[in-house]
Structure formats: C-alpha cells, structure tokens
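Study the following:
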Amino acid sequence: MDELSGRLTIAGALRAAAEVLRAAGLSEPRREAGSLLSHSTGRDQAFLITHSDEELTAEQLEDFRACVGRRAAGEPFQYIAGRQEFYGLEFEVSRDVLIPRPETELLVETALELMKGSTAPLLCDVGTGSGCIAVTLLHERKDARGFALDVSDAALAVAARNAARHGVGERLRLLVSDCFDALRSDGREELRFDLVASNPPYIAESDIEELQKEVREHEPRVALTPGGDGLKVIRRLVAEAPHFLKPGGHLLLEIGFDQHEQVAALIDPAVWTLLDIHRDLQGIPRTVALRLKDG
C-alpha cells in the first residue's frame, strides 16, 4: 500500500485509503476509510472534516495503514475497532464472538416485554458470545439475575468484560457449557428460570459458502453453524428447556430467514404455547416466542 506512506494530511490519507478499499471491492470505500481513520486517530468525523489539512503523525499513519490493510483483506470493521453498539450500549467484540446484529435487538425487546409481569426474574442466555443479550437484559432490568452459557472460554472472557463494563457483573454467572450441560450438576439441578433466551448457531452447513466473505472467513464458525440443516442446537433447546423453566416461563430463539416453518414443526403443543414468531425490520420471521405450559 504505497499510497499510504510518507507524509500525508487527513484528506490525503482518506483519498489514498479509499482507493485501496475500492480496489479491494468494498462498496462504500470513502465511508469506510473515514471510519478507520476516526478509529486510528481517536477523532470523530467532524474533526476529520474540519481539520482535513492537518498532517498525520507517523504513529497515526502506521496504525491507519494497518487498519486499512485488515479491512481490505475482508476483516469486519467491528473486529478492527474492537467494539459494536447493541441496544444503545457499546460492547467489546473480538474474533472469538459473533458481532451483535440489529435483528437480535428484537429478541431483547421481546424478552423485556415478556418479563414485565415478573419480579426479580431469573434468566438464562444460552450461547452468550459477547454477552450482548444477557448483559442488555440485566442492564434494563435492575432487579434481574442471570446465567450466561457458552462452549467457548474465550467468548465468556469477552462477555465477562462486557458485563463489568455495564455494571451487571455481580448479577451474572458465566459458565462454560454445551447448551444446558453445566446446569445438570454442582447443585444447579434445581435452577428454574423465568426466561431462557438464545441466538444459537442456526446456519445450514450448505449455506455457509453463500455468506458474505467477511462473515464466512472471520466470524467464529462454531457460532454460525452447528452443521447439517442448522437446527441441531434449536432442537436441543426446544427439547431441554422445559426442564430448566418455571411453569409459564418463556423460551426465546433467534432463527434463520427460512426456518420458521421447520422450527414451528418442532414445537410440541402439549408442552409449549407458541406465542408468536416475530418478524424483523426486513419482514423476516426472526424471533420465536414460546411459553411453557403449566404442569
């Protein structure tokens, strides 16, 4: 990237970076260059515009050059910056966790609505990743406590930092767990939750190659797909959650864009009441809401 060398002003660096990102096939190279330079310099977009003739320091240019190279190679900006906003909160993200997405905010909104009638609710987030679901719910409900489960130690470390950042760490227990396995021993067998929520891996193995390159090559595969038809973890959650819910408790699941009929077929009407399959802003069936029947 010879364009990003020597002595460059803010304007010159933005032009050079935009050319590199355009050549790499990014659809909005100028905007992306601005975001990367804002990250590298610690300055907002307004500063970059009003100080376009200011020369970058050698350290700023070196960092910017490295960031542009990573983005040109397809790495998501959120991993480069190490953060992503979710439900009005900033979350640390790394390549150990999925990047929180706007459609998952629908699950949080649904959970908060369903918990309105509960006092001091106990919740469980299965496959917590960055912790965005559990941390946001506890942040919004100061009387709630929760468990966050994940198969990845590295993901749980990120979730722990996010819980501490948003002041909910003392109310959140993080456990290494494959689905509910960690709750089956060590005195946790009697736990019963008001709500279980999950954004599980649900992409079918055959659909992985159709994902955007930056998702396919950079986000953790274990958090994207369980293999096969993508429903393996969802099947487990629907089958196992009744053991861990209070009567009348709720199970919320995020699902793939074409899975609502398959998931509906998994629901035993003798066990569950299907409350709704909520659609996201694109009209895609996205969040399945179930209530456990009494008895």
